[in-house]
Amino acid sequence: RGTWALYRGTMVAGCDNNQDCNGINDQTGPPDDVQDCVDRPNVKMPCWNGGDGQHGPKSLHPGGCHATLLDGSVRFVSETIDTDTVMRAMNSIQGREVFEMP
To answer: What is the pLDDT of residues 43-64, one digit of tens each?
Structure first.
């Protein structure tokens, strides 16, 4: 699947530490809930074939994944990033928050 290679009709809003997507390259849960996905835990790409369209960020790169930002730039995001803090900042309805990739 590569880095956030999404299936048709899927959408990513992010991960949180209370559900089945606990971070980048997460192997618990499984982290992907995508209709008609192929469960491939042997290559660290587990998924649940039931699908509400949530797909965790993952890559075969060790230590993290590449992410494309809205400005078109691409950044490598570490598996050790605090997803709870990042997702709270990126999904806030307060507005005016400044978020910079670590």
So the answer is: 666 676 766 666 667 777 778 8
